[in-house]
Amino acid sequence: VQLQASGGGLVQAGGSLRLSCAASGRTFSNYNMGWFRQAPGKEREFVAAISRGGSTTYYSDSVKGRVTISRENGKNTVYLQMNSLKPEDTAVYYCAADSSVRINTNLYEYDYWGQGTQVTVSS
Asked: Which residues contact 19 (CB under 8 A, 6 or more apart)?
């Protein structure tokens, strides 16, 4: 499956962004989807994940309460709504698809990755 992330940009602290990830090539609803991020000099880390049908979601502690992951299987798209953004949220954000039975927070379980979209939060 091919993944195309978009929606990143420059925003002031306290602002909001909605990232989108469009999938193509395979049946989107067969995959759990995740968002990860990587800041300069740091390892890629889990942000959020959603099950195939959208009924189950997981969030990292660092974003819980500020971020919402959702998906529209009819549009082959997964979203990441980010509110109350902080400078420490600055990173390249990646979407990923996982064919596993259960949702994973481990990036090594994901099979397909998008190219990433830059999010920069100014203080």
From this structure: 5, 6, 7, 8, 35, 79, 80, 82, 93, 95, 117, 119
Mean pLDDT for the chain?
Answer: 97
* Per-residue model confidence as pLDDT tens digits over 4-17: 999 999 999 999 99
- With residue 83 as reference, give the H or E element that holds it: none
Please tell me the number of Cα atoms within 13 Å of 97 on its side-chain side. 26
Tens of pLDDT, residues 43-65: 999 999 999 999 999 999 999 99
Which sign, positive or negative, has the C-alpha torsion 65, 45, 5, 119?
positive
Strand, coil or helix: 81: strand
